[in-house]
Amino acid sequence: MRFPTPRHYLMCPPRYFAVDYTINPWMDPSVPVDPELAMAQWAALRETYRRLGHTVDEIEPQPGLPDMVFAANSGTVIDGRVLGARFRAAQRAAEAEHFRRWFLDHGYRDITMPTRINEAEGDFVWTGRELLAGTGFRTDPEAHAEAQEVLGVPVVSLRLTDPRYYHLDTALFVLSEASDTAPAQLAYYPEAFSPGSRRVLERMFPHAVRADTPDAACLGLNGVCDGCHVVLPAEAERLADQLAELGYEPVPVDVSELRKAGGGPKCCTLEIRK
């Protein structure tokens, strides 16, 4: 049996969502975007979390920052300690300061802004025991050492090699966090990683769920799990079946409009771990 754990999330409404530039292979400014549909899909995701018993806070979106909806890229919070973000793309750089102010305004005082490029939970995935840290397209390798120093947790570096999976959270997510008696369980897409990183994942997580290409291609690995319920894109049907066989409860959501900018459920969801 799987047991859910109440979570605390920070999200940003896609009031100014658009695809006006290209900073990843998913983005094509020539493809029309429906802002109302994006807002409806985001609101359904937020209400899904609340229905599952989780707390959802919201940050006010800012004009001129269409990717601010992807809140996961703007901070990593472990034990109430906040490591902010430093974006590689100039178009997103201003987001980091808005999120820093939100944390200050909500009582967080242990906040560090990085000196190296660090796209937060886009490339940092907490397993409950160690921080898996992606690099290859966005986050600097040197940011991994900075995260270990700031957050005080062990960091394991993983290299991404497929530009479609430009952030770690597009190719891997945690299903159940590590405990005193068991390692974390996760799902990932092996082909997104370098050969050495695949071997690391195989050694650390031999019982991980390995997703296939169609499920990865709909950003099915950009999921959010509370230890029982797995919120993931509706198109990731085979992955959902695999998870159900393991006792998890898949919760499919429609994020097709947000995917036009390369985002899914996790991209929209920054987890606050107090």
Automatic annotation (TrEMBL):
Active-site residues per Swiss-Prot or TrEMBL entry: H167 (proton donor), C267 (nucleophile)
Gene3D superfamilies named among the record's database cross-references: L-arginine/glycine Amidinotransferase, Chain A
UniProt keywords, alphabetically: Hydrolase
Example GO BP: positive regulation of nitric oxide biosynthetic process
GO molecular function per UniProt: amino acid binding; dimethylargininase activity
Family statement: Belongs to the DDAH family.
Protein's UniProt name: N-dimethylarginine dimethylaminohydrolase
Organism: Saccharomonospora marina XMU15
